[in-house]
């Protein structure tokens, strides 16, 4: 019998690193003027309408086998990868679907773009959920919709965060795909064969949010916007780094070194962001990845403390040194001198 993972029943504890569901100020979103960039959005919409991956997410005969040969640890880590990925994709679907509904009358072009992106995200989430079915598990997405707490982000924060999440998703998927293309002996499950086309959806979504940012120069050309761009770059990079540090065994199972993988993905995403954001992070600073390593180690200590059987009060006191070092390192990373993007003049022209 197929069991059902629900957020209320799952043993995975919701933390700051858990994929989240978002909502925003829909009235403010509807009031944004995109008229100066209308031609760009029309071109993006036409590309979304083509639906390049309409026939891509179709399970083939390679899925029709038992996966019992996977050792227990690898199996559990892979299931967690599927669960987190499915939750993240479904979160995108819900946000984009609601935005398409709210903007239908005021910004029909943008509304249809969001609708078609929600189509893509639903397709991704469904494909991942079917993969979980091969391990006799499934996410109850309806229950997840009702039970999860929603985090409010203003439109500009939605733009920053979602642009980066889509772009970093592209680099994560394509890096894994290219690695496994060269080393098929490490492809533990057929879903990885779908990553090349899949990540192009992420890339197109990122381009859409880049166009939204360019249509609102106030989100890019002020002192405050430079600070927020740095904040979201560091937040996205640190979240991925800390998560993957805890899951190094999963990457080992597919023949990757998690640290080297994250370093490559961060460098590529930082480079992509520099084409839109006014600043990028100095990831070549000799301390940048050293400090992320220290953050990851402190986060692991926090996870270990959560697993012990001591009282909440004792756990709280035990966490203070780790939290202090983690926060200090993140502040140090944030205040590293950023790199000004060379093309910012063209972005805000």
TrEMBL record:
<protein>
    <recommendedName>
        <fullName>Magnesium-protoporphyrin IX monomethyl ester [oxidative] cyclase</fullName>
        <ecNumber>1.14.13.81</ecNumber>
    </recommendedName>
</protein>
<dbReference type="GO" id="GO:0009507">
    <property type="term" value="C:chloroplast"/>
</dbReference>
<keyword id="KW-0934">Plastid</keyword>
<comment type="similarity">
    <text>Belongs to the AcsF family.</text>
</comment>
<feature type="domain" description="Rubrerythrin diiron-binding">
    <location>
        <begin position="80"/>
        <end position="213"/>
    </location>
</feature>
<dbReference type="GO" id="GO:0005506">
    <property type="term" value="F:iron ion binding"/>
</dbReference>
<dbReference type="Pfam" id="PF02915">
    <property type="entry name" value="Rubrerythrin"/>
</dbReference>
<keyword id="KW-0521">NADP</keyword>
<keyword id="KW-0479">Metal-binding</keyword>
<comment type="pathway">
    <text>Porphyrin-containing compound metabolism; chlorophyll biosynthesis (light-independent).</text>
</comment>
<dbReference type="GO" id="GO:0048529">
    <property type="term" value="F:magnesium-protoporphyrin IX monomethyl ester (oxidative) cyclase activity"/>
</dbReference>
<keyword id="KW-0150">Chloroplast</keyword>
<dbReference type="InterPro" id="IPR009078">
    <property type="entry name" value="Ferritin-like_SF"/>
</dbReference>
<comment type="function">
    <text>Catalyzes the formation of the isocyclic ring in chlorophyll biosynthesis. Mediates the cyclase reaction, which results in the formation of divinylprotochlorophyllide (Pchlide) characteristic of all chlorophylls from magnesium-protoporphyrin IX 13-monomethyl ester (MgPMME).</text>
</comment>
<dbReference type="GO" id="GO:0015979">
    <property type="term" value="P:photosynthesis"/>
</dbReference>
<keyword id="KW-0149">Chlorophyll biosynthesis</keyword>
<keyword id="KW-0560">Oxidoreductase</keyword>
<keyword id="KW-0602">Photosynthesis</keyword>
<dbReference type="InterPro" id="IPR008434">
    <property type="entry name" value="AcsF"/>
</dbReference>
<keyword id="KW-0408">Iron</keyword>
<dbReference type="GO" id="GO:0036068">
    <property type="term" value="P:light-independent chlorophyll biosynthetic process"/>
</dbReference>
<dbReference type="InterPro" id="IPR003251">
    <property type="entry name" value="Rr_diiron-bd_dom"/>
</dbReference>
């Amino acid at each position: 019998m197929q069991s059902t993972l629900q957020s209320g029943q799952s043993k995975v504890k919701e933390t700051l690193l858990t994929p989240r569901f978002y909502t925003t100020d829909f009235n403010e979103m509807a009031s944004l003027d995109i008229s100066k960039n209308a031609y760009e959005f029309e071109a993006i919409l036409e590309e979304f309408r083509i639906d390049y991956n309409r026939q891509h997410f179709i399970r083939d005969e390679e899925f029709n086998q038992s996966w019992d040969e996977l050792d227990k640890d690898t199996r559990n880590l892979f299931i967690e990868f599927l669960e987190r990925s499915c939750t993240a994709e479904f979160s995108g679907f819900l946000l984009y679907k609601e935005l398409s509904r709210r903007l239908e009358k005021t910004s029909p072009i943008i509304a249809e773009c969001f609708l078609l992106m929600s189509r893509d995200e639903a397709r991704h989430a469904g494909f991942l959920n079917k993969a979980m079915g091969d391990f006799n598990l499934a996410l109850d997405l309806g229950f997840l919709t009702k039970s999860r707490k929603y985090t409010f982000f203003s439109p500009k924060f939605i733009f920053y965060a979602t642009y980066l999440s889509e772009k970093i998703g592209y680099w994560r998927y394509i890096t894994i795909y290219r690695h496994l293309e060269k080393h098929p002996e490490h492809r533990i499950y057929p879903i990885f064969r779908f990553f090349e086309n899949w990540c192009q959806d992420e890339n197109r979504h990122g381009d859409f949010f880049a166009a939204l940012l360019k249509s609102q120069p106030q989100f890019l050309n002020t002192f405050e916007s430079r600070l927020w761009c740095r904040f979201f770059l560091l937040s996205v990079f640190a979240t991925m780094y800390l998560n993957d540090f805890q899951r190094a065994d999963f990457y080992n199972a597919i023949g990757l070194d998690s640290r080297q993988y994250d370093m490559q993905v961060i460098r590529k995403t930082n480079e992509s962001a520099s084409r839109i954001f006014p600043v990028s992070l100095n990831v070549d600073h000799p301390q940048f990845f050293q400090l992320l390593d220290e953050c990851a180690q402190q986060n692991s200590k926090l996870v270990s403390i959560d697993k012990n059987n001591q009282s909440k009060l004792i756990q709280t006191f035990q966490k203070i040194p780790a939290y202090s070092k983690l926060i200090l390192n993140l502040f140090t990373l944030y205040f590293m001198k950023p790199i000004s993007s060379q093309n910012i003049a063209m972005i805000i022209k």
